């Protein structure tokens, strides 16, 4: 299995073969995670530092569990409370980190591009856990694994991504990945929540949700990212739910066996009806969380193999 990358900064640089390599290895880790012992040794002796400059519950917990299950020493640095507030630059942070000799660095940052910058300054493998509205590669990979398991394939599917596309790194990484694997991607949402220049991504754009869902195999709902909005993007949450909230009536326009996804955290009653989210016949939201741990184990395993090979050659 070859994965010719030193870091996982985005979906952008990945080939279809790279994506398949991660997903195939993740399948092994799904099996391991369902076993009694849950432990492997792919990261034994390595130090993983999680640096989250933005709040996160599931992504941070998922990376932490993934590292621990593969035998890494895992440390969480609470960046919210510390250096960033005191005005330390990203470069200083990188120098501090280098002195601690980490092997894997998992970073979430509110600014697009900050994780790439950090990767240029540290001597370890860097994984992007979400940078601004740019990319969130492990989310797109876990979504891809969830889709592949539910649909039996990851190509020639119609995937509707609905909601706040403009502010969403999840949408961006998913558009890139699904496009690369030759799926049809539709974006549904109010024009105020569509990013400028989105046509260049080879997607179809709808502002009518029922039309956009017609014949969809996968319905991926996104959270309204209120913390990234600086003004009136939507008239009101009630109006938004009426037009773009996923309920049974709107979902009936998708294929009868369409699956429903959401990266979390969910705003029930804003972008999705609670009953749909909990419907085990349609919703794969819990599977997404499970696949998240497996995909992160696979990504860190592949990067660690490369890191060890590079160090051995040096
Ligand atoms: C997403 C994120 O942080 O980008 N959440 C996640 O990683 N599970 C989506 C979101 O915040 O809405």
Automatic annotation (TrEMBL):
The keyword Iron does not apply. It comes from the Bacteria. Residues 157-302 form the Aspartate/ornithine carbamoyltransferase Asp/Orn-binding domain. Pfam families: OTCace, OTCace_N. Coiled coil: none annotated. Pathway: Pyrimidine metabolism; UMP biosynthesis via de novo pathway; (S)-dihydroorotate from bicarbonate: step 2/3. Residues 7-148 form the Aspartate/ornithine carbamoyltransferase carbamoyl-P binding domain. Gene3D superfamilies: Aspartate/ornithine carbamoyltransferase. The keyword Lyase does not apply. GO terms for molecular function: amino acid binding; aspartate carbamoyltransferase activity. It catalyses: carbamoyl phosphate + L-aspartate = N-carbamoyl-L-aspartate + phosphate + H(+). Carbamoyl phosphate binds at residues 58-59, 108, 136, 139, 264-265. Its EC number is 2.1.3.2. L-aspartate binds at residues 86, 169, 223. It is an enzyme of class 2 (transferase). One of its GO terms (biological process) is 'de novo' UMP biosynthetic process. Reversibly catalyzes the transfer of the carbamoyl group from carbamoyl phosphate (CP) to the N(epsilon) atom of ornithine (ORN) to produce L-citrulline. Catalyzes the condensation of carbamoyl phosphate and aspartate to form carbamoyl aspartate and inorganic phosphate, the committed step in the de novo pyrimidine nucleotide biosynthesis pathway. HAMAP family: Asp_carb_tr. PANTHER family: ASPARTATE CARBAMOYLTRANSFERASE, ORNITHINE CARBAMOYLTRANSFERASE, MITOCHONDRIAL. Heterododecamer (2C3:3R2) of six catalytic PyrB chains organized as two trimers (C3), and six regulatory PyrI chains organized as three dimers (R2). Belongs to the aspartate/ornithine carbamoyltransferase superfamily. ATCase family. This is Aspartate carbamoyltransferase. The gene is pyrB.
């Amino acid at each position: 299995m070859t994965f010719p990358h030193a870091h996982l900064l985005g979906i952008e640089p990945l080939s279809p073969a790279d994506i398949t390599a991660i997903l195939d290895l993740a399948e092994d880790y799904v099996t391991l995670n369902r076993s009694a012992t849950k432990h492997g040794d792919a990261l034994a002796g390595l130090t993983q530092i999680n640096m989250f400059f933005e709040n996160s519950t599931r992504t941070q917990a998922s990376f932490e569990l993934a590292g621990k299950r593969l035998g890494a020493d895992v440390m969480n640095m609470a960046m919210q409370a510390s250096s960033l507030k005191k005005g330390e630059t990203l470069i200083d942070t990188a120098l501090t980190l280098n002195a601690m000799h980490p092997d894997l660095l998992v970073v979430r940052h509110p600014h697009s591009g900050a994780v790439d910058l950090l990767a240029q300054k540290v001597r370890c493998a860097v994984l992007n856990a979400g940078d601004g509205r740019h990319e969130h590669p492990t989310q797109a990979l876990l979504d891809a694994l969830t889709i592949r398991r539910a649909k039996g394939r990851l190509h020639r599917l119609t995937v509707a991504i609905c909601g706040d596309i403009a502010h969403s790194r999840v949408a961006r990484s998913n558009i890139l990945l699904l496009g690369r694997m030759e799926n049809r991607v539709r974006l549904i949402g109010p024009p105020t929540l569509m990013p400028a220049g989105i046509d260049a991504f080879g997607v179809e754009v709808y502002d009518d949700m029922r039309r956009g869902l017609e014949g969809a195999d996968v319905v991926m709902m996104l959270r309204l990212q209120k913390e990234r909005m600086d003004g009136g993007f939507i008239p009101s949450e009630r109006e938004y739910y009426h037009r773009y909230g996923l309920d049974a009536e709107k979902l009936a326009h998708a294929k009868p066996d369409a699956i429903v996804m959401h990266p979390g955290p969910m705003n029930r009653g804003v972008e999705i009806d609670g009953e749909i989210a909990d419907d085990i016949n349609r919703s794969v939201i819990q599977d997404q969380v499970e696949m998240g741990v497996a995909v992160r184990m696979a990504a860190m395993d592949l990067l660690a193999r490369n890191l060890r090979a590079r160090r051995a050659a040096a």
